[in-house]
Amino acid sequence: MTKTPTSLIELSHEATNLHIRSDLTAAHAHVWEKLAAPGTWWNGSERLAVAEVVRVALGDSDPVPPWDSASKSGRLPNSSRISSELQDAVYRLAVHAGTLTEGWYQKMRDATGVTPQQWVEIIEVTISVASVLRFAQLAGIDSPDFPEPLQGQPTRQTQPSKPAKHHWVPVVHLEDSTPELAPFYNGLPALAPVIRALSSVPAAMDTLFTLGDAQYIPMREMVDMNWTRGTLSRRQIELVAGRLSAHRECFY
Amino acid sequence: MMLRASSSANDLELDLDVVRGDLQESDAIQHAPELAALVDASVNDLASLPSARSALVEATDEATMLDAAAVVANFEMMTRIADGTGTRHPADRLESMSELSDSMGLGDFASERA
Q1: Are A166 and A88 in contact, with CB atoms under 8 Å apart?
Q2: Which residue of B has its CA nearest to A99?
Q3: What are B14-73's pLDDT values in tens digits?
Q4: In this structure, is residue A185 part of a structural domain?
Q5: Which of A146, A230, B54, B75 is most buried, most CB within 10 Å of its CB?
Q6: What is the ipTM of this complex?
Q7: What is the pTM assigned to this prediction?
């Protein structure tokens, strides 16, 4: 019998003596449920093809340099549901995100034909896989398998996104909020640019908020500089966050 | 930036070398060397990850190690969102962090987008 996405995460988290927080298990299960299901712009098989590139890239002990083609290196599946140009873009996002430039983004879009919203969804798949697999690696537990792809068409639900001053991708401004974005926008006087970055695809915002709340700090507690779960202090949390971001050469 | 804010909120002096440099124990951040070692091993030296994990558990406890692992996972997410979407800081924010950025050498990052 096929295992459900949630059971794959639960198996991974429970096959250990570690006591992993139930809200963290639930957050990872939630994004695993979405991983191989039809999304907003990609179907389940296409999303899984993106996920597979991310998995290979994260596990690559000697990554292909950013200026070379990962798809031509023989490390990526030949019969992928996505083009080799898009595989290359996903691989670079997964292992060399700090090297991306606006020029690269424009060329990548020309080469792959993806829309900005399709690219945002690719980022969503990438962050789902990176979060779940990197947590497993750091915690020393088995990585969960990928779920089986679900049939169905993407929703193709559009949002009133507009060109943005602080992003390459268009975003939905606070004053243009929609019912789909209300859970993320309502009650907030402002939203950091990095949070707004995925707003053209509300399902991606859902992934970001679900993971961020469980892995880092619930969004509404962000202003509390002494917030803690009773384990790491806020300063310890920010040390880990800052040090990882520096390793990834992320200026933002 | 959030590290600086969380320290200022508690009137603590913080040497921001903790983000990129070698770490010593400090009053401002308990168990900073063990936390940094976990992050560093996860990026640069997977073979030493088990010992970094054990050292952190010994210094703190299992739940703290798991929460540190979750924060790393989260910033594997945030860095890819920022760099994949070309997210920039607003001009006023960039100005307020210019000293910090210079002292930490962040201007050398390819991902700097003014």
Answers
A1: no
A2: B110
A3: 666 666 667 667 778 999 999 999 999 999 999 999 999 999 999 999 999 999 999 999
A4: no
A5: B75
A6: 0.96
A7: 0.92
